Amino acid sequence: MNALDYFNARLEATISPMDYLKLAQVDPDKHFLIDVRNGPNHVRNLTIKDAHVIPQQELHNRLHEIPKDKEIIVYCWDVWCNTAAKVAKFLLERGYKVKELTGGIAAWKEMNFPCSDLSQNVNMSDNCGC
């Protein structure tokens, strides 16, 4: 693979926080954002505003919640985490159109973009699955 092919593939498979925020403001119904992070509640209580929380470990049982008619954007912790890439691959294999949010929740928070605090949500599973 040459450099041009690499960067074209990378741009096709990912979206930056800034680009996602702009697109979501223009057409909020086009995308379905999923927080796929695993881990205990106290470390994942902050999520991107309007994200659907479907941890990777619950994905098989909750696949019916993910619409096929929208572009799916998945994110995890940071650039060192590959959970979102694993979920993206899983969803792509099942016919979804998917991109990974680069930098995960860490990049989003670093840019001071809108977040939601889920610490009051009693329905969050505290089973890490790690």
Summarize, please.
The protein has helices at residues 3-13, 17-26, 59-62, 83-92, 104-110; strands at 14-15, 31-35, 46-48, 52-53, 71-75, 97-101, 115-117. The chain is of the alpha/beta class.
Secondary structure layout:
Elements: H1 3-13, E1 14-15, H2 17-26, E2 31-35, E3 46-48, E4 52-53, H3 59-62, E5 71-75, H4 83-92, E6 97-101, H5 104-110, E7 115-117
Parallel strand pairs: 1-6, 2-4, 2-5, 5-6
Antiparallel strand pairs: 3-7
Domain Rhodanese: 27-117
InterPro entries: GlpE_sulfurtransferase, Rhodanese-like_dom, Rhodanese-like_dom_sf
Protein name: Rhodanese-like domain-containing protein
Features:
130 residues, alpha/beta, Oxidized Rhodanese, domain 1, disordered C terminus
Describe this entry's structure for a reader.
This protein has 130 residues and is α/β, with parallel strands linked by helices. It has helices at 3-13, 17-26, 59-62, 83-92, 104-110; strands at residues 14-15, 31-35, 46-48, 52-53, 71-75, 97-101, 115-117. It has a single domain, classed as Oxidized Rhodanese, domain 1. It is built from 5 helices and 7 strands, in the order αβαβββαβαβαβ. The strands form 2 sheets. Strands 1-6-5-2-4 form a 5-stranded parallel beta sheet. Helix 4 links the parallel strand 5 and strand 6 (97-101). It comes from Metabacillus bambusae. InterPro entries: GlpE_sulfurtransferase (IPR050229), Rhodanese-like_dom (IPR001763), Rhodanese-like_dom_sf (IPR036873). It holds the Pfam family Rhodanese. Residues 27-117 form the Rhodanese domain.
